[in-house]
Write a structure and sequence with these properties.
alpha+beta, 4-stranded antiparallel sheet, single chain, about 140 residues
Length: about 140
Protein backbone atom coordinates (compact mmCIF):
# COMPACT_ATOMS: atom_id res chain seq x y z
CA UNK A 1 0.00 0.00 0.00
CA UNK A 2 2.95 2.31 0.64
CA UNK A 3 4.01 1.81 -2.96
CA UNK A 4 0.56 2.94 -4.08
CA UNK A 5 0.75 5.96 -1.80
CA UNK A 6 4.21 6.88 -3.08
CA UNK A 7 3.15 6.42 -6.71
CA UNK A 8 0.01 8.50 -6.16
CA UNK A 9 1.92 11.26 -4.42
CA UNK A 10 4.56 11.26 -7.16
CA UNK A 11 1.83 11.72 -9.75
CA UNK A 12 0.20 14.47 -7.69
CA UNK A 13 3.48 16.30 -7.38
CA UNK A 14 4.58 15.68 -10.96
CA UNK A 15 1.15 16.41 -12.49
CA UNK A 16 1.21 20.18 -12.07
CA UNK A 17 4.86 20.26 -13.12
CA UNK A 18 4.02 18.46 -16.36
CA UNK A 19 1.22 20.87 -17.21
CA UNK A 20 3.35 23.86 -16.27
CA UNK A 21 6.24 22.80 -18.51
CA UNK A 22 4.00 23.12 -21.55
CA UNK A 23 3.98 26.90 -21.12
CA UNK A 24 6.40 28.58 -23.55
CA UNK A 25 9.33 30.57 -22.13
CA UNK A 26 8.71 29.43 -18.57
CA UNK A 27 12.27 28.22 -18.01
CA UNK A 28 15.45 30.12 -18.74
CA UNK A 29 18.74 28.21 -19.08
CA UNK A 30 22.14 29.73 -18.32
CA UNK A 31 25.52 27.99 -18.74
CA UNK A 32 27.89 28.05 -15.78
CA UNK A 33 31.26 26.43 -15.02
CA UNK A 34 29.58 23.59 -13.13
CA UNK A 35 26.76 22.93 -15.61
CA UNK A 36 23.54 24.64 -16.54
CA UNK A 37 21.26 26.57 -14.21
CA UNK A 38 17.55 26.31 -14.99
CA UNK A 39 15.53 29.28 -13.73
CA UNK A 40 11.78 28.89 -13.40
CA UNK A 41 10.61 32.37 -14.38
CA UNK A 42 7.21 31.76 -12.81
CA UNK A 43 8.31 30.68 -9.33
CA UNK A 44 11.93 31.85 -9.22
CA UNK A 45 13.17 28.34 -8.35
CA UNK A 46 16.64 27.46 -9.64
CA UNK A 47 17.87 23.96 -10.44
CA UNK A 48 21.38 22.86 -11.37
CA UNK A 49 21.43 20.66 -14.49
CA UNK A 50 24.20 18.63 -16.17
CA UNK A 51 24.57 17.35 -19.72
CA UNK A 52 24.60 13.54 -19.45
CA UNK A 53 25.02 11.74 -22.79
CA UNK A 54 23.23 14.46 -24.71
CA UNK A 55 20.35 14.62 -22.20
CA UNK A 56 19.83 17.47 -19.77
CA UNK A 57 19.56 15.94 -16.27
CA UNK A 58 18.30 18.23 -13.54
CA UNK A 59 18.53 17.22 -9.88
CA UNK A 60 16.40 18.53 -7.04
CA UNK A 61 18.06 20.99 -4.75
CA UNK A 62 18.01 20.27 -0.99
CA UNK A 63 15.11 22.65 -0.29
CA UNK A 64 13.06 21.17 -3.15
CA UNK A 65 13.89 17.68 -1.90
CA UNK A 66 12.75 18.60 1.62
CA UNK A 67 9.44 19.94 0.31
CA UNK A 68 9.01 16.77 -1.76
CA UNK A 69 9.71 14.57 1.28
CA UNK A 70 7.29 16.58 3.43
CA UNK A 71 4.55 16.17 0.83
CA UNK A 72 5.22 12.42 0.65
CA UNK A 73 5.03 12.16 4.45
CA UNK A 74 1.79 14.15 4.54
CA UNK A 75 0.21 11.98 1.88
CA UNK A 76 1.41 8.78 3.54
CA UNK A 77 -0.17 9.86 6.85
CA UNK A 78 -3.39 10.71 5.03
CA UNK A 79 -3.51 7.32 3.31
CA UNK A 80 -2.80 5.57 6.62
CA UNK A 81 -5.62 7.51 8.32
CA UNK A 82 -8.04 6.64 5.52
CA UNK A 83 -7.08 2.97 5.64
CA UNK A 84 -7.54 3.01 9.42
CA UNK A 85 -10.98 4.57 9.08
CA UNK A 86 -12.01 2.06 6.42
CA UNK A 87 -10.81 -0.88 8.49
CA UNK A 88 -13.29 0.04 11.26
CA UNK A 89 -16.28 0.33 8.92
CA UNK A 90 -18.01 -2.88 7.93
CA UNK A 91 -17.85 -3.23 4.11
CA UNK A 92 -21.60 -3.55 3.50
CA UNK A 93 -23.03 -1.72 6.50
CA UNK A 94 -26.73 -1.05 6.07
CA UNK A 95 -28.24 2.22 7.26
CA UNK A 96 -30.00 2.22 10.62
CA UNK A 97 -33.79 2.38 10.86
CA UNK A 98 -33.53 6.03 11.91
CA UNK A 99 -31.50 6.86 8.80
CA UNK A 100 -34.01 5.06 6.56
CA UNK A 101 -36.95 6.84 8.23
CA UNK A 102 -35.24 10.22 7.87
CA UNK A 103 -34.48 9.57 4.19
CA UNK A 104 -38.06 8.50 3.48
CA UNK A 105 -39.38 11.55 5.32
CA UNK A 106 -37.26 13.84 3.18
CA UNK A 107 -38.37 12.06 0.00
CA UNK A 108 -42.03 12.25 1.07
CA UNK A 109 -41.81 16.01 1.70
CA UNK A 110 -40.12 16.46 -1.65
CA UNK A 111 -42.79 14.50 -3.50
CA UNK A 112 -45.65 16.31 -1.73
CA UNK A 113 -44.22 19.73 -2.60
CA UNK A 114 -43.47 18.65 -6.15
CA UNK A 115 -47.01 17.36 -6.67
CA UNK A 116 -48.40 20.63 -5.23
CA UNK A 117 -46.40 22.59 -7.79
CA UNK A 118 -47.63 20.33 -10.59
CA UNK A 119 -51.19 20.78 -9.32
CA UNK A 120 -50.80 24.58 -9.48
CA UNK A 121 -49.66 24.37 -13.10
CA UNK A 122 -52.62 22.17 -13.99
CA UNK A 123 -55.03 24.61 -12.31
CA UNK A 124 -53.45 27.53 -14.19
CA UNK A 125 -53.86 25.73 -17.51
CA UNK A 126 -57.51 25.03 -16.83
CA UNK A 127 -58.14 28.66 -15.83
CA UNK A 128 -56.56 29.91 -19.07
CA UNK A 129 -58.67 27.68 -21.35
CA UNK A 130 -61.14 29.67 -23.45
CA UNK A 131 -64.73 29.08 -22.40
CA UNK A 132 -66.99 27.60 -25.04
CA UNK A 133 -69.36 30.02 -26.77
CA UNK A 134 -72.92 29.13 -25.66
CA UNK A 135 -74.88 31.52 -27.74
Amino acid sequence: MKVLALATSALLIAGPALTQQAQPNRFQLERTESGIVRLDTQTGAMTLCHDENGTLACRMQPDERAAYEQELDRLEKRVTALEERLSHTPPNALPSDEEVDRSLSIMERFMRRFMAIVGEFIDEREDNKPQPNRT
